[in-house]
């Protein structure tokens, strides 16, 4: 399995518009963070984790134009769904399946109704919106009939229920503040955990750094990578030195191998 970090930043991205702090003016490319997203490739199946407003730029940077077999949506917020219209080029291969729970799927239909009309006008992305249920495994596959099992995991974005995803021995969790006690067992035995850590200071809807460290320790993955970071986290080169062994700050363009 290969995980490519397409974006490791929070909703404003880094640099943040108008900010002149040391992080936003840093020349270290690891401090330049597009909105949060990742590409998971396993057994020939390619899965996009969220599709935010930087998706077009992320795909151009990746320079690897191949079919997307699935797009997994964590929740409805714009920084995670604002790029869905830019799936259009990938529809040249085939319609793109987009997976979300019912609450999120309903809001996507309201927000971009032209993508789900009975009669689509030319050029509209051909999205197959598929509703999933937390804790209920499902499979996705590629054109060669290779299937991969996925477990959607319930996490809480403040008071908003959203989804993380387990794929084999890795899990991708973003925008979490807390997790229901019953969900932790779904994350046993991970080789890699990719999880949000917003900043050192507390936040009402996201884990801060200490909360993320505590959850990383409890989940016990062999390696943990933090994503969805704001400029308040500090300079990558400095703050990563403070992390315990086997815990890392992810950065845009980073490639992580599993297994």
Automatic annotation (TrEMBL):
CDD domains for this protein: metallo-hydrolase-like_MBL-fold
Residue ranges of the TM segments: none
Domain Metallo-beta-lactamase stretches: 34-228
Pfam family, one: Lactamase_B_2
Annotated InterPro entries: Metallo-B-lactamas, RibonucZ/Hydroxyglut_hydro
Protein name: Metallo-beta-lactamase domain-containing protein
Record organism: Phocaeicola massiliensis B84634 = Timone 84634 = DSM 17679 = JCM 13223
């Amino acid at each position: 399995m290969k995980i490519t970090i397409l974006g490791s930043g929070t909703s404003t991205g880094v640099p943040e518009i108008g900010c002149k702090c040391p992080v936003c003016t840093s020349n270290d490319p690891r401090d330049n963070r597009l909105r949060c997203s990742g590409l998971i490739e396993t057994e020939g199946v390619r899965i996009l984790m969220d599709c935010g407003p930087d998706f077009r730029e992320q795909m151009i940077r990746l320079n690897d134009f191949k079919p997307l077999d699935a797009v997994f949506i964590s929740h409805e917020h714009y920084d995670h769904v604002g790029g869905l219209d830019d799936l259009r080029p990938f529809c040249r291969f085939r319609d793109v399946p987009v997976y979300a729970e019912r609450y999120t799927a309903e809001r996507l239909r309201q927000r971009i109704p032209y993508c789900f009309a009975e009669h689509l006008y030319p050029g509209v992305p051909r999205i197959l919106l598929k509703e999933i249920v937390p804790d209920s495994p499902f499979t996705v596959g590629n054109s060669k009939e290779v299937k991969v099992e996925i477990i959607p995991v319930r996490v809480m974005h403040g008071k908003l229920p959203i989804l993380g995803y387990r794929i084999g021995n890795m899990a991708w969790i973003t925008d979490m503040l807390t997790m229901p006690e019953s969900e932790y067992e779904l994350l046993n035995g991970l080789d890699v955990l990719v999880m949000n850590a917003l900043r050192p200071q507390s936040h009402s809807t996201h884990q801060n750094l200490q909360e993320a460290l505590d959850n990383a320790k409890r989940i016990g993955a062999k390696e943990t990578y933090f994503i969805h970071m704001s400029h308040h986290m500090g300079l990558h080169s400095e703050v990563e030195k403070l992390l315990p062994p086997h815990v890392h700050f992810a950065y845009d363009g980073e490639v992580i191998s599993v297994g």
